[in-house]
Write a structure and sequence with these properties.
alpha/beta; about 40% helix; Methane Monooxygenase Hydroxylase, Chain G, domain 1; ten-stranded mixed beta sheet; Lyase, Ornithine Decarboxylase, Chain A, domain 1; 4 domains
């Protein structure tokens, strides 16, 4: 329990917003309303507000189940507009004579509904797309017309290069971005082999771009995306060789784009400025030798502030593929969108003016910044384990010395108040608990006595922590931090970390988490969110809050007779695509929401998508449902013939098994009640 003996002010929605550090990550979209519910304002400049609990209720009526992704589609449009308008304003202010175009890399979120919304919002801004695999290329080729620029990154085999040449022959604006010199060689061979219309001696000249390996490197988790050791890109000698080959063919103008990428989340603008200066010098060199590059692509990395730098605390990372220490700066940025645009526009303008070359069309692949905010993962709490609230145990009739030691420590815990004596008490209690465990393992302490020792121990911990907190020690002693960790409740929630927020497990990415209602009440419990999986890593162990200790989240006392929903925010980028199937917990259901002042609650549900069924999930791992049903039928038949169950009971068991195959892979949050109670 959170102890606070200081005089308390009345709890308000503003206090809740401060506690969960909402202003550090909400980008102006989310807040707490007068009812104590999280609300969204998806349309910038409008007072239209949507209560998320009302959205959840409406989605349930539409047949949605938990966990549930709620998409506020208008936020995608708002993010696209904000990005493009900011660049337009910066270009006008700078007197920049080129243009800016957003490129959406669909790897960030390939779901068709998301891509369609991005494209619709970007029509007036000439928004383009980027793909990085054969499947992504196949998906996007059918979506674009002749006016949409599409960049093709990633490793390209001959079949992908053929598809790109086909698109160019059809008049589509598709640019393969060369990331290995061998791709360029393959592209030329395929172009030379292409049959052109009869009665012409025209040879297909492929249009292309080049990704560069710059000397500039980013910082933080994705620093290896840049620099000479990066996975993709041409070196300067390779670029020169490529240009020579094009010039020999009389095709210098076919090189239309230069590109670099510093990583998925650029933490500060210093590295960005250096990289932009470097790539622009190459651009100027090419122009001065007659290679008229049109586009300068600064890649992805426009940061999203996940709130990780709020306050002064740091948290330890956990395992996954990443391990090590989690750095808060990797989940935050120290710049705004305007500064990001200024760095790019003014830097390119300065060098182009110095070198006397035209200013290029600027491109950025800002997928995370476009999609992260629009999705919320809604997870219900289905149970809580409270270590400081064990079942009451009666003292043994004949207490042993270790029991008496623990009782003496409890008496001291009630009496003492100074830091030194409190530390002494908790050390005595810990020693007694350890001794009790050893005696139990040797058979010298019975189960009832051990249970009593454990119960008293937690009472001591609760009292000592309460008194430590009242002393307002700065810095707090290690014993206090340890007690906070020990006395943290485990809130069991209906979801899988590995399916829905894989980046938290894999690389320590922090996501804002908070209750969606009851925010008119001050939360009094320290909680840690754990999922349904049987893996000890299946938990959220770093949080965004105003508390220095980020390993726990302030939550409300759980009431088993009333739903308690937590929201995980900013999951719209990467998470839904990266998710795995740990414990065969598969993709979750979705509700797609649009704002409208003419509708009840200011919203309408455009579409709901059901979570994957057990039957379909099993099919993905080669369990054929019809075969499973046949095997279970044969098993039940044998049990009936052997007299283990009666025929009617056997059929009830079989029908229940068959019916369950249609369920989702997650828990049913409904509870069974005793009719006699």
């Amino acid at each position: 329990m959170i102890d606070n003996t200081a005089p308390k002010k009345a709890w308000t929605s503003a206090a809740a917003e401060e506690l969960y550090a909402m202003k550090s990550w909400n980008a102006g979209f989310y807040g707490v309303n007068d009812k104590g519910h999280v609300a969204v304002r998806p349309i910038p400049g409008s007072d239209l507000e949507i209560d998320i609990t009302e959205v959840i209720d409406a989605a349930i009526k539409e047949g949605c189940t938990f966990p549930l992704i709620v998409r506020f589609q208008d936020i995608i449009s708002a993010r696209v507009r904000r990005l493009n308008q900011t660049f337009r304003e910066t270009i006008a202010e700078a007197g920049y004579t080129g243009e800016y175009r957003t490129i959406y890399p669909i790897k960030v979120n390939q779901l068709h509904e998301v891509v369609a919304e991005v494209m619709d919002a970007g029509k007036e801004f000439n928004l383009g797309l980027e793909c990085g695999s054969r499947a992504e290329l196949m998906a996007t080729l059918a979506l674009i017309g002749d006016d949409i620029l599409m960049l093709c990154n990633g490793v390209k085999d001959h079949s992908m290069l053929t598809l790109m040449l086909n698109a160019q022959q059809l008049g589509q604006q598709v640019l393969p971005v060369i990331e290995k010199y061998s791709e360029f060689e393959q592209l030329l061979v395929l172009a030379d082999q292409r049959e052109m219309p009869r009665d012409t001696d025209v040879r297909l000249t492929p249009r292309l771009g080049v990704r560069m390996k710059l000397s500039t490197r980013g910082s933080g988790r994705w620093f290896e995306s840049g620099g000479s050791g990066s996975k993709f890109g041409l070196t300067v000698p390779e670029l020169v060789q490529l240009v020579h080959e094009l010039e020999k063919r009389g095709s210098g103008d076919c090189l239309e784009l230069l590109h670099f990428h510093l990583g998925s989340q650029i933490a500060d603008t210093q590295a960005l400025r250096s990289a932009v200066r470097e790539i622009t010098q190459f651009y100027a060199d090419l122009h001065l030798r007659g290679v008229k590059v049109k586009y300068l692509d600064v890649g992805g990395g426009l940061g999203v502030n996940y709130g990780g730098n709020y306050g002064s605390g740091h948290g330890a990372g956990h395992g996954g593929a990443h391990g090590g220490e989690y750095e808060e700066g990797e989940s935050s940025i120290n710049y705004g969108l305007r500064e990001y645009a200024n760095v790019i526009v003014f830097t390119v303008k300065e060098i182009c003016e110095q070198r006397g070359v035209p200013m290029p069309t600027l491109l950025s692949e800002s997928g995370r910044a476009i999609t992260a905010h629009h999705s919320i993962l809604v997870v219900p709490v289905i149970g809580v384990h409270q270590p400081d609230n064990p079942p009451k145990c009666e003292p043994p009739a004949n207490p042993t010395s270790v029991v008496l030691r623990m009782e003496a420590a409890l008496k001291e815990a009630k009496a003492v108040r100074s830091r030194g004596l409190l530390m002494e008490v908790i050390h005595d209690a810990q020693d007694a608990r350890m001794e009790a465990g050893q005696l139990s393992r040797l058979g010298y302490l019975d189960m009832e006595s051990l249970a009593y020792v454990e119960s008293v121990y937690w009472s001591i911990c609760r009292k000592v922590l309460h008194k430590f907190t009242a002393l307002h020690l700065n810095p707090a002693p290690a014993e206090q931090a340890e007690l906070e960790t020990q006395l943290t409740d485990l809130y069991l929630c209906d979801f899988s970390v590995f399916q829905s927020i894989l980046d938290h497990w894999a690389i320590g990415q922090v996501f804002p988490v908070m209750p969606l209602d009851r925010l008119d009440e001050e939360p009094t419990r320290r909680g840690q969110v754990v999922d349904l999986t049987c893996d000890s890593d299946g938990k959220i162990d770093q949080y965004v809050s105003s508390h220095a200790n980020k390993s726990w989240l302030p939550l409300h006392e759980y009431r088993s007779n009333k739903p308690y929903y937590l929201g995980v925010f900013l999951v719209g980028a990467y998470q839904e695509i990266l998710g795995d199937a740990h414990n065969l917990l598969g993709p979750v259901g979705e509700a797609h929401i649009y704002a409208s002042a003419d509708e009840p609650g200011n919203f309408w549900i455009e579409e709901t998508i059901k979570a994957i069924s057990i039957k379909d999930m099993l099919s993905q791992v080669q369990y054929v449902p019809s075969d499973l049903d046949r095997r279970m039928t044969e098993l039940i038949r044998r049990k009936i013939e052997a007299g283990v169950v009666k025929p009617a009971e056997g059929m009830r068991i079989l029908n229940n098994y068959t019916k369950r195959l249609e369920d989702t892979t997650y828990c049913d949050t409904d509870k069974v009640h005793n009719p006699g109670v």
